[in-house]
From TrEMBL:
Organism whose genome encodes this protein: Methylobrevis albus
InterPro entries attached to this UniProt entry: DUF952
Superkingdom in the source lineage: Bacteria
Protein name: DUF952 domain-containing protein
Pfam families in the record: DUF952
């Protein structure tokens, strides 16, 4: 993977993700289906996404996706504060998933993230 193909992240409910693995693809959470695309975040954005949209939830996983393996490629569109966020206008092919890890809550009530970027064990 190169900088031209960054890793992007999806926060999903653990049960929702297990269902996607059983189905062989991820079509998105309810908000994704309503918006017509799957919402992703970059490594720099994902903690704020968790705090804003998933506060207090302890049933989550963090899914790392290699954008170089996505077809079609994600579309980078402005969202919070004008920052560009990756959106996927298709089902997520699980072959593009680099890893999936639990996203637990820490003692302070914030989500505890694994190392982000290229690091991390395979699924």
């Amino acid at each position: 993977m190169t900088a031209a193909h960054p890793i992007i992240y999806k926060i999903a409910g653990a049960a929702e993700w297990r269902a996607a693995e059983a189905a062989g693809s991820f079509r998105g959470a309810a908000v994704d289906l309503a918006d017509g695309y799957i919402h992703f975040s970059t490594a720099e954005q994902v903690a704020e996404t968790a705090a804003k949209h998933f506060a207090g939830r302890d049933d989550l996983v963090l899914v790392a996706v290699d954008t170089g393996r996505l077809d079609p490629a994600p579309v980078w569109e402005p969202s919070r504060g004008g920052a560009l966020f990756p959106h996927l206008y298709a089902a997520l092919d699980l072959a593009a998933v680099a890893w999936v890890k639990p996203l637990p809550l820490g003692p302070d009530g914030r989500h505890v993230f694994p190392p982000l970027g290229d690091a991390g064990a395979a699924r």
